[in-house]
Amino acid sequence: MSVLLIAEDVDDIAMILVRLFRRDGMTVLHGADGAEAFDLAVEHRPDVILTDLGMPRMDGWDLLKAVRNHSDLRDTPVAILTGQLQPGDARVSESGACCLLLKPCPNDELRATVRQLVENGPHGHTFSSAGCLSHATTSL
Ligand SMILES: [Zn+2]
Which of 15, 66, 109, 131 is the most buried (most CB within 10 A)? Predict the structure, then answer.
């Protein structure tokens, strides 16, 4: 069974996301901030990470950095889900994220993106190239 880790500090959004992906048959873990999510990632080695950006203690950028610098987690596919960025923001590809999803994101697009990342599996990130999920409408 695929394991999805969600880093999201807003309870209502987290609950909706957890429910959505559990209905899809995934094992879903939830960290209420980047630090908690990182601990869960180290412990459970999720197949895909879906992270918000603005979070207390450790934000999404720092979570990405920590994941990409961790020897066992560095190739984990990561999608950013935020309302704070514009499409094409260079920081997304520089951070080593696979793609950017903008809130509010339709459920179908959320599902399709996470499914695609699960299928793609672990892969390296160069930090400077365009996001690696080329099929998604909001990818970079
Ligand atoms: Zn990627």
Answer: 131
Q: Which residues surround ligand 1, an ion (CB under 5 A)?
A: 77, 98, 132
Q: 45: CA distance to ligand 1 center in Å?
A: 16
pTM for the structure as a whole: 0.92
64-91 pLDDT, tens digit each: 999 999 999 999 999 999 998 988 888 8
Burial 18-52 (b: 16+ CB within 10 A, else e): bebbeeeebebbbbbbbbbbbebbeeeebbbbbbb
Mean pLDDT of the chain: 90
Q: How far is the CA of 12 from the centre of ligand 1 (A)?
A: 27
76 C-alpha to center of ligand 1: Å?
A: 7
- How far, in Å, from the CA of 73 to the mean position of ligand 1? 12
Q: Residue 139: what pLDDT?
A: 42
- Which residue shows structure tokens 């960290």? 31
* Centre of ligand 1 from the C-alpha of residue 9, in Å: 23
**Percent of the chain at pLDDT exceeding 70:** 90
**Beta-strand runs (E) in 8-52:** 27-31, 48-51
